[in-house]
Specification:
Elements (H helix, E strand, L loop, with lengths): L5 E4 L9 H5 L27 H5 L5 E4 L26
Antiparallel strand pairs: 1-2
Length: about 90
């Protein structure tokens, strides 16, 4: 888990679909606020994971600490692993 890697939501682009909350098995988002994605556990995010950002239909999720060159794909799931190695559903 990381203190220097976590999702940032651009609420002007967020459709509040809840896909990010549903896919994250690390408790990063407040499930009580679904479908609005509220990050409550930044330390729960796995460094290098782009799982929620890759699912976002509007590309509204970026990450603090991301220097990988990844850009939000606007919901295009290319069926590749998020790379976090967590064994969860991301």
């Amino acid at each position: 888990m990381s203190r220097k890697w976590y999702p940032v939501i651009d609420y002007t682009n967020c459709a509040e679909c809840g896909s990010c909350i549903e896919m994250c098995s690390h408790g990063v988002y407040d499930a009580q606020k679904a479908p609005t994605p509220i990050v409550i556990n930044e330390n729960g995010c796995v460094e290098g994971c782009h799982g929620c950002g890759s699912l976002c239909p509007n590309g509204a999720i970026t990450y603090v600490g991301d220097d990988t060159g990844w850009t939000p794909p606007n919901g295009v799931d290319d069926n590749t692993s998020c790379g976090c190695g967590c064994g969860g559903n991301c």
